[in-house]
Amino acid sequence: MNLSRNFYRLVFSVLISLGVSDLVFAQKIDILLKGGHVIDPKNNIDAVMDVAISDGKILRLAPQIDAAGAIKVIDISGLYLSPGIIDIHVHVFAGTNKAQKYMDGPNSLPPDGFTLRSGVTTVVDAGSAGWKSFPLFKKNIIDNSKTRVLSFLNIVGDGMGEFEQDTMDMDPEMAASTAKFYDDHIVGFKVAHYNGVQWIPVDNAVAAGKLAQKPVMIDWRGLPPVNSFEELLLKHLRPGDILTHMYHAGKSVGAASPLYKESVLDENGKVKPYVFQAQNRGIIFDVGHGGNGFVFGQAIPSLKQGFRPNTISSDLHIGNMNAGMKDMANIMSKFLNMGMSVQDVIARSTWNPALSIQRKDLGHLSVGAEADIAVFNLKNGNFGFIDSHGGSFRGTKRLEAELTIRAGKVVWDLNGLATDAWDKAAKSK
C-alpha cells in the first residue's frame, strides 16, 4: 500500500517537473484574450499580457497563455484591455413618470443601451430613487439589466424630482435602514437640486451615511445667497464623501436660471486653496460631466495646476447623451487630450470609483474576480470634443470601445472581434 502511494507521488512530482500539470489539471478557458496591453491599476499591471476567463471569472493573466483547449480565442493585439469601466454618476431609473422626470421618468435612460457600448460594466444611479421608490427601481431596472446597476439613494424619500425641496421628507433613519437592507445594491446617499439655504439636506445625508457607514455624493447649488462652498467641503462633508460636477462653470447653472454654483477657480483662474485642502483631507472630487457640469475653462486650468479628478463619471441622462457628454469613452478621451496619461484615465474610471463606493470586489482583474472587461482602441487623428456650454476643443486621441465583457460574456463587439467570419460561421452550423 505504501509502495503504491509512493509511486503515485513520484509520478505526480515528475509531471510537475515536466510542466505537464498545467495540461492535466488546468481549468477550462471559455475566453482567451491574447496580446492586449493590460492596464489594471489595482494590481499595478501595465504590460502586454494574455487574459483567460473561465466560468465568468478571471482565471489567469500571463505574458503567454497556451490557446490549446480554449473555447474562444480573441486576438486584441494593439488594443488596450482594462477592468470594466465604473461610472458612478448616472440616471437610469427610466419610466413614464413625466411629472418627476428622473424618478421612474423619461429623463432617465435604460442602462444597457448607453453603457456597454462604451466599455461601462457598472453604473451607480445618483439619486433618482429614494427609500420609498427604491423597491420599484430594483424591480424594473436593477433586476433586468445586464449592466451592474448600483445606487446612491436620494436623501429625499420619494427620489429625484420636485420632491427634492421637501426637507420634511429627508429622513436619515429610513434612508439608512433601506441602504442596510439592500446593502448589495445601495452604495451611499445623494443630495441634488435643493434650492434652499439650509444645511438640512447635506447634514441629513451625512447622518444617513454615518448610520449606514456609506459615503454621500453632493451636487451643490442653490438660489443666492448660496451657503459657503468652503464650509461644505471642510466642515459638513467627511473624508470619503463625494463632490460631483467638479469642473462646473460656476455662476448661473443655466442661461435662464437664477440658480448659482461656486466654481473651483477664483476670479484670477487659480484653484482656490481650500479646494486643494478638501481633496487632501479625503473629499473625493468627481467629474459628473452631464449637460451642465463640465467646461474646458475650468478643467484645463485646474489640471495644469494639479487639481485632478479622483473619479471620472458621466451624469448620463436624456439631456446629454447626444450633446457634449456623449458617453464615458468620450469623456475619458477628453482627459487624455488635456494631458492625462491613459493609465491615469483608466485608474480614475475603474479602481478609484470602486474604492469611492467601497466595492473592492470591482474595478480590477485579480484572479477570481468577476470578468468585467473593457477593450479599447486608442485612435490617433484629428478629433473634436465639446463641453457642457458648447465650447469645443481639438485633440489627437480618441478611445473607442471595441469589446465589452460582463461577467465573462461578450456584450459589445464593435468590429466582430469575438465572432467567426460569416463563411466559417455558416459551415459550423
From TrEMBL:
A Pfam family reported for this protein in Swiss-Prot or TrEMBL: Amidohydro_1
Positions of modified residues (N6-carboxylysine): K190
InterPro entries xrefs: Amidohydro-rel, Deacetylase_Atu3266-like, Metal-dep_hydrolase_composite, Metal_Hydrolase
Domain of life: Bacteria
Keyword line: Metal-binding, Zinc
GO molecular function, one term: hydrolase activity, acting on carbon-nitrogen (but not peptide) bonds
Residues the record lists as binding Zn(2+) 1: H89, H91, K190, D315
Residue stretches making up the Amidohydrolase-related domain: 303-390
Residues bound to Zn(2+) 2: K190, H245
Keyword field contains Metal-binding: yes
Keyword Zinc in annotation: yes
Classification via NCBIfam families: PRK09237.1
PANTHER family reported in the protein's UniProt record: DIHYDROOROTASE-RELATED (PTHR42717), IMIDAZOLONEPROPIONASE AND RELATED AMIDOHYDROLASES (PTHR42717:SF1)
Name this protein carries in UniProt: Dihydroorotase
